[in-house]
Amino acid sequence: MSLPPSTSPSPFLKFTLFLVGGSVVMWMWLLSCHLRGFDCVEDDDCTSSLQTCVQGWCESREVPSEGEPIIAELPKDYECPSDSQATLSQPTLLYKADTHIDNLHSDGTYLYWIDQDKNDIYVKEIGSEADAQLWYDGPDTLRNVRPYQQYLYVGLSSKNIEQPNGKIFRLLKPPNKPTNAYDIVKNIESPGDIQINTTHVYWTALTDQSSVPAITLMRVNKAPGSQKEKLFTGRLSAFALGNQYVYWLTGDFAGEIGKMNLSDPQRMTPETVTDKIAEGVDITINDRDIYYTDADGLFKIPKEGGRIQRIDRSGSQLSLDLYYLYFVRSEKLVQASLYCPDSLDRIVKSAFPGQVQHLAQDQQHVYIHVRDNNETSFIYQLKKLYNP
Fold first, then answer.
1. Phi-psi region of 152 (alpha: psi -120 to 50; beta: other; left: phi over 0)
2. Which residues, other chains included, contact 225 with Cβ-Cβ below 8 Å and sequence gap of 6+?
3. DSSP 8-state code for residue 57
C-alpha cells in the first residue's frame, strides 16, 4: 500500500516564509514608529540588539554599564612589587601651549581637553605622531567636556544669573565629524563636573551664590524631553558615579561622604557613609572602596561605611585602575598599590616643570596636565609597564 504524499511544506519553503514574515513584522514596526511621530535612530548608547522605539530614543534591556573599576583577582603567588620594579615609563611630552587648558580626559583612543583661552575643544590621537587638532570651535562660555561611548558631552556656562541659560549638549567623537550637536538639557546654571552612564547625564550646579554657596547634584535622562532632577544640595566638592550608586563629598568644615541608590526611583534618598570629613577635595571609587582627599590627607573607606584608613598625608586629583591608585602630591605623581597597604608601593614621578592640574588615565597610560609659573601648559604621557 502506497503512502499519501506529504502535505507539509519543504524546508526551503519554511525558510522563505520565515524571511517574508520577519520582514513584514519589521516594516510594520518601523511604520508604527513613523506614524506616531517617532524617529527610530541608531545610537551607540543602545548597544544591545534588543531595541525599541520610545520617543525617538533607542531603549535597550541589555546595555552594559560603565562604572567603577572592579578589584582584580590576583594570582596566589602574587608578591608586592618593590620600588625597583618599574610600573610607569618616563614621562613623554605630548603637548605644549601658552594657554590655559582644562578638563583632560582619555577614552583609550584619543585625548580630549578644552583650551579655555580660545574656548575650543582639542583632540589628540593616542600613539600618533600627528599634532593635536581643533575639534570644536566653541562659544565663549565653553566650560567642560567628557567623552562617553561615541559622544563628547559638553557643558556651557550660563551668562545670566536671574534666568540661567547654560546647557549640556553632545557631539560625535573622532573619527567622525563633530556635527549634529544635540542638546541634552538647556536653561541650567553653569554646569560643573559632568559624568554619564547608560541612561542619564549627571552634573553639579552652583545654585546658591551666597557667602556659603550651595552646589546641587543634578541629573537628566538622555531621552528627549526629559525633566532634570535634583538629587542633593550642599557644599559639594566632587562626586563619583557608580553602577548602582552615586557618591559625593562635601567641602564643609564638618563634611560628609553621602550616597544615593539610583536603581529604585521611588527610594532615591540621601544616605551618609561617614560624617568625619574635614573640607573634602576629591573622591573616586572602585567596586569595594571609596577613596577621598580632604584637608587632613588621603583616605579610603568601605562603601558600606566603617573604618577609615589613611593612605597619605596629602593628595588630590585621584584616579583608579584595577591595581593602582594614582594621585597628586604637590608637583608629584604618586602611584600606590591597592594590594600592598603596608608598603603602598609608592612610585613617585616628580619630573614635571610646574603644578599638576589634571590627571587622566586609560588602560595603557597615565596622562598629566602641568602648568608652570609662566602659565604654559604641558601634557605628559606615562605608559603603564607593570601589572600583576
1. beta
2. 55
3. E
